[in-house]
Amino acid sequence: MSGSMAAMKLLCYGDSNTYGFDPRSYIGGRYPAASRWPDLVAECTGYQVINAGMNGRMIPAREEELAWMGQMITGQHPDLVIIMLGINDLLCGASVDEITGRMDACLQALAGMRILLIGPPPLQNGTWVPDDQLLQEAAGLSDGYRDLAVRRGISFADTRDWGVEVTYDGVHFSEEGHRAFARGICRALTDQKQG
């Protein structure tokens, strides 16, 4: 990678799948850096990548939460913000319309920043996903985010064909899932650069 590309700074704002949560751990442990997708993206691009993932994070909704998020992200001065949130909201009972509305407010709080909005990878039946309704709603979330990205004029990545493997709980990426996700993000970043 050239020096100018290496200077690019990405901030990945997400939940446990960005943090790198290892579901084999009962105390919030995470995969090693070499198995987390933000670190793998840094390796494949040469970019500086900030992992701002947090276990259990939902889309900021209250005014003070949105303000804190905006200050935290802008304070890092990223060239691009990669946002992947919404699954925890879904698991807590929010509808796709509610989640999309929360994400719209979140994006508004980051107006003027370059953003790549991620449609979360498909859920699978597992200990956290006991029925097919959640699978269908998660698929609808990606569609809602795509429409939102078009309206907002920001970039969008649909991860449904990236082959991201999840673990027994049906939600959290396996280490191979992190590798597949990183490959997809790297392709999306290349497409952006060429577009």
Main attributes?
195 residues; alpha/beta; Rossmann fold; 5-stranded parallel beta sheet; 8 helices; 13% strand; disordered N terminus
Strand content is 5-15%
Shape: globular
Average pLDDT number: 93
Radius of gyration, CA atoms, in whole angstroms:
16 Å
The total count of strands amounts to 5
Strand order of the largest sheet: 2-1-3-4-5
- By DSSP (H or I, 4+ residues per run), the number of helices equals 8
- CATH architectural arrangement: 3-Layer(aba) Sandwich
State the CATH topology.
Rossmann fold
Share of helix, binned: 40-55%
What order do the helices and strands come in, and which of them pair?
Elements: H1 3-6, E1 9-14, H2 16-19, H3 37-45, E2 48-53, H4 63-75, E3 80-84, H5 87-91, H6 96-109, E4 115-119, H7 132-152, E5 155-158, H8 175-194
Parallel strand pairs: 1-2, 1-3, 3-4, 4-5
Helix pairs in contact: 3-8, 6-7
Question: Could you explain the architecture of this structure?
Answer:
The chain has eight helices and five strands. By secondary structure, the chain is α/β, with parallel strands linked by helices. A five-stranded parallel sheet has the order 2-1-3-4-5. Helix 3 crosses helix 8 (175-194) and helix 6 (96-109) packs parallel to helix 7. The chain starts with a helix and ends with a helix. Helix 7 links the parallel strand 4 and strand 5 (155-158). The protein has one domain: Rossmann fold (3-Layer(aba) Sandwich), CATH 3.40.50.1110. Helices cover 46% and strands 13% of the residues.
Produce a short descriptive summary.
This protein has 195 residues and is an alpha/beta fold. The protein is 46% helix and 13% strand. It has a single domain (3-194), classed as Rossmann fold (3-Layer(aba) Sandwich).
